[in-house]
Amino acid sequence: MQQRKKWLRAVSLVSGLALVGAACGSDDEGGGASPTGTAPVEKVEVTIYGQGAWTGPANYLVVPSFQGAQMAFDELNADAGYPATITFEQADTQGSPDNAPPVVEEIVGNPNTVAVHGPGFSGESEASGDTFEEAGIPFVSASATNPGLSQKGWTFWYRGIANDDDQGTPAAQYLAQVLSASSVFVTHDKSTYGQGLAEVVRDTLESEGVDVAGFEGIETGAEDFSALISDIEASSPDAVYFGGYDFDFGKIVKQARDAGLDVPMMSGDGSVSSTLIDLAGSGLTDVYLTCPCNLTGDFVQQYNDKYGGEASSVPIYVAEGYDVANLLGEGIKQAIDGGATTPEEIRAGIKTYLDSVTTDSPYQGVAKSYAFDPSTHELAATERLELIYFYAAVPGEITLEGQAPEVLGG
Amino acid sequence: MGECVTNIVDQFWAQTRNGVTLGAIYAMIALGYTMVYGVLQLINFAHSEVFMVSTVVTLFAVRNWMGVTEPVTGVLLVIVLIGALIPAMLAGGGMAVAIERLAYRPLRRRGAPRLSFLIAAIGASLAIQYLFVLMDGQHYLLWFKLPNILGPNPQSLPEVMQTQTLFTWFGTEISNRRVVVVVVAVAMMVVLDLIVRRTRVGRGIRAVAQDQETAAIMGVDIERIIVLTFLIGGIMAGAAGMLFVTIAPGAPAFWFIGFFPGIKAFTAAVLGGIGNIRGAMLGGLLLGLVEAYGTACTGAQWVNVIAFVVLVLVLMVRPTGILGEQVGA
Amino acid sequence: MTGSISDRIADAQGRAKALVRNGTGPVRAAAIRAREWWNGHRRWVQPLAWFVMIAIAFLLPLLDQWFTLPIWLQRATSGGTLSRVALFTLFALGLNVVVGFAGLLDLGYVAFWAIGAYTAGILTGAADYTKGLRAGTADLADKPVWEPWMWLILVAALAFAVIAGIVLGSPTLRLRGDYLAIVTLGFGEIVRITANNLDTVTVGPRGIASIPHPEIHAGPVDLAWGTLIDDKYYWLLLVFVVLWIVAIRMLDRSRIGRAWVAIREDEIAAGAMGVPVVRMKLAAFVIGASTAGVGGVIYAEQVNFINPPTFSILQSILILSMVVIGGMGSTWGAVLGATLVVLLPEVFREFEDYRFFVFGVTIVAVMAFRPQGLLPSRRRALELRGHTVEDHLPDVEVAEGESG
Lengths: 410, 329, 404
Description:
The complex is a heterotrimer.
Chain A: H1 2-20, E1 44-52, H2 59-78, E2 84-92, H3 100-109, E3 113-117, H4 122-135, E4 139-141, E5 157-159, H5 164-178, E6 183-188, H6 192-207, E7 211-217, H7 226-234, E8 239-243, H8 246-258, E9 265-267, H9 274-280, E10 287-291, H10 299-307, H11 316-337, H12 343-356, E11 363-364, E12 369-370, E13 389-394, E14 397-403, H13 404-409
Parallel strand pairs in A: 1-2, 1-3, 3-4, 4-5, 6-7, 6-8, 8-9, 9-10
Antiparallel strand pairs in A: 10-13, 11-12, 13-14
Chain B: H1 2-10, H2 12-40, H3 47-65, H4 74-109, H5 114-134, E1 140-141, E2 144-145, E3 165-169, E4 172-175, H6 176-198, H7 200-210, H8 212-217, H9 222-246, H10 259-272, H11 277-298, H12 303-317
Antiparallel strand pairs in B: 1-2, 3-4
Helix pairs in contact in B: 1-11, 2-6, 2-9, 2-10, 2-11, 3-4, 3-9, 3-10, 4-5, 4-9, 6-7, 6-9, 7-9, 10-11, 11-12
Chain C: H1 2-22, H2 26-40, H3 45-59, H4 63-66, H5 71-76, H6 79-101, H7 110-123, H8 126-135, H9 152-172, H10 177-197, H11 199-202, E1 208-209, E2 215-218, E3 221-224, H12 231-253, H13 255-265, H14 267-272, H15 277-303, E4 305-306, H16 313-326, H17 331-347, H18 355-369, H19 378-388, H20 392-403
Antiparallel strand pairs in C: 1-4, 2-3
């Protein structure tokens, strides 16, 4: 059964490719048939799906993380000593849960599937998770940050990124302690991510004794925010917090500065990008950002070199995507080294490996060090604040201020 | 409720200023919708893509061809703006005519039901959007490598004009950008109004809008008038797109940028009386003000709800919009 | 049988016009003969053919287990894909009543889908659970489970959709074509934004998770629907699709159906002849709304998570394009349109980035070559040609004038 389907896939893949017009011989890496080989290691063929918005208006948020993953898989495949050939397939939901059924069925239906890199968004994670859990396929997201996902009781789910709660708390502390704001206007983009983050910031501010001058959603994707800015000006806050993405925040910063609103402004990882720098232009003063990522590594540079014009404006998820891919890759290796041969065994092996990545034996990635909490499968850290980095933005660049403990402590 | 009223009173002049500027932008886009609708009774859904294409052309004109990197002033500013405006208008007009040729004309020839036009427009809209997504220098269309023009990510433009406060009115600062937007929008409307009312082409357009068959009998070349209508509508969208990304809010060029302003502009056109050029202006203004006051009242998250409720209320009292339909009425 | 005489007259007229328009190609002649044969065997052949068709439709997701299929066919016949096809078929059938039968342009159809889905999300207790989980007042043990009364949610959703349809419809259905379009578009947005903003009721942007999957335990029947990709969702939806097709065809041939035709052709004349215009329009609107409401419930129970961005205006446009591509006013057209619009992008996953570009071009091409849709309704096609006595003839003259 399995052999047959594999053969079928190869045939249809070839015919599909012929249809597109790309000439490609395919299958020379041994479809699993030759029992003896002279190669250093006999490679097992496995498939990992990248589930998320490959196309559609939200794709710029997750495609970079998949590009990072592709880099990792390319490196592994090129390594003669690596025991598997990983095919990285696109599973395009456009980020929407209603597109999930056909996509999830294809992932689960493919006998070669060993893991899912994703789902990219929280909504589609909610929709697809139960099925992956039932099928025993590990699924590791590098971009879905809704805290609720760890409460689903999924054992095959892991999150390679800090969630919204982790980030909101230090951001609010920064507003209260470092910027000494006594009243803050909190806005968000009415998305799962943006509102979730903004709510944590609001609650923490209140517990810090800071007056929340306003809490309101914006119309995401709008181009003219001057009505919102007048509304903010009317309550004359000491600072403004925005939960949402670069695309909106850049415009808000720019238009606020144009309108003469000069108070400090702050946002989260969704706004850490060159799009923010571009859009806010000369208005990018007194702007602070939190991010569960260290952008000073040279990996982001490697990525930009490799993808050139295709490189994304949100490089933070790139390193996460690369690391998560390598985590999966390491899981496959250990599974095969441990004697796993079938995809089912490899899936279990990946899970065993991911479970072993704890604070005692963390995995060092290019973005950060990874360790999973044994019960929630969230990132674990001895000090949760260490996951968060602070950045300051000025026209033309975003500079690192430091890790949360030192910035808030000092 | 009380908070709503005090907020509006507190922010009255600032929000009026915001609303007028926003309304002017909506009106500029709405002019193109209204032109085409008045003549063909056709919602040109692909109009927002004409708008999008003109933002991309503006990006190239400003960044690549003229090499602007920082804000300019005086005569140079005027030159840069005109240098961007002309290609944007040409691109807009060309795009609109191309859409007419490829998507609408075959349907007109076959006497298709009106909804088919709408769906063809949606199809054309999708195709154009994704064509620009594919234009990132990595994709092929059949055997041609598509040039690197836009791609999936938003691309922001260099800042062309420095924001300055021109004057203060009731304690509200009015910036140079806002003045330019409103002046240009009014100018565009006046020019369009004059074309429709005073020129030979305008007479043809009005004749076709009133009664195609009679116009044909009277010697009006209907096909030519339809193409001209699309051309003028496209040129208007081109100018609006150019202003939108350079002067108005300074938005980036992006393949999805046309969608929301397009919907808003269409709403504005209906509000004022679709097919009516002055109605588009009035509808845009009203919609802009409703959104601005609505933000003060309830916060930005309910603004679209308020806008649509106002639309329903207006249509219940005046079923064909505030000024009624009719080109040149 | 009352309809059959007029049907036959219509048939004859249609054939005559078809001959005039298209000449007498052998294919067309064969098609006409086939239709005559079909109409002549109402008693046995038709029900049998129906039965076979439905049976095939039910067996589709099992093909993969019995035969080795090429990957594109595997994709097309997977339960996940088919359930999406069936869901959108249901929506297309409902919208077809509004747009195709009654001629009302509705750009906010997604609102009723949302209303159905949120009814399920809230009534099953999933909304409270999701909120509680976040607030720390609930844990996994409180996760909602399926109770037999939950089947009544279908009825509740139907009722809510009907109420929403009346609330929206009664003030606005007096509006003419395009004004109605923009108002319905606005309604769709209002529903989505409200769902996004009313956090206390709908959980806002976070969305409602853990909506229970349905179960039936009645005597010998012991069915439990599984996660997302269970084939049984397709079968459940298919049952509704079949029911709806039967009901809609009956409606179309009833007094109401004829009233719709009259309204579509000439509203004023219909009103003058005593057709209760607004009430009939409202009926179409409400029938369409209730269809989407029911579909929404099953959607919510299948995907088990709903959030506001799903119900964007783009979905309304997608469903409308299914109706128009299939052929307005044609029930089979709606089925075909939904099937194509859902399947094509799925089948052509190989093309990845090119999919939506190709989709857009395909829509334009279909409209250019078959503006009446792929399977136009015969009655509707007649009307269109009837209109062309006024509209089409001058067109022909223009075309000739240009070529000459």
